[in-house]
Amino acid sequence: MITHVDKDGRPTMVDVSAKSPSLRTAHARTRVQLPSNVADALHATGGVTKKGPVFDTAIVAGVMAAKRTHELVPFCHPLGIEKCKVSVDFDRDRSNEVVIDCRVAVHNRTGVEMEALTGATVAALTVYDMCKALSHDIVIGETRLIEKTGGKSDFHSTESAA
Hints:
Layout: E1 22-33, H1 36-45, E2 48-49, E3 52-53, H2 54-67, H3 69-72, E4 83-90, E5 97-108, H4 113-131, E6 139-149, E7 155-156
Antiparallel strand pairs: 1-5, 1-6, 2-3, 4-5, 6-7
Helix pairs in contact: 2-4
């Protein structure tokens, strides 16, 4: 069933007014592959480029994006997010890959999957922006939902949520 169209087939926001508020959480992850020279430079400088602290700036951008998801994605409900935690770090097993996790929580009638996905993605775009002077061969890779809880059903990805 398509939920974002009305009885006349026109686009519409889903009506969640009859649902009971409950704790809704989501965890999304984006991976960024860096060319060797970029990864080496970030490792050597503690994650700082001429533009500033890459990972810290990406964290701030990810939180800001999660809070503004409803302004970016049509039909997302505006939510008073109660928790948003973005982490950005090198993958333990691949020194040229950055792993970005965004965890969001709210007590509401609708979930926060889109907020978590948006936060992780914008944080990845920020890593790209802050490192592009070193190389344009940066690849923003897979973005996926790792976990969501609350609502009709929970979801847990087959990828480790480490």
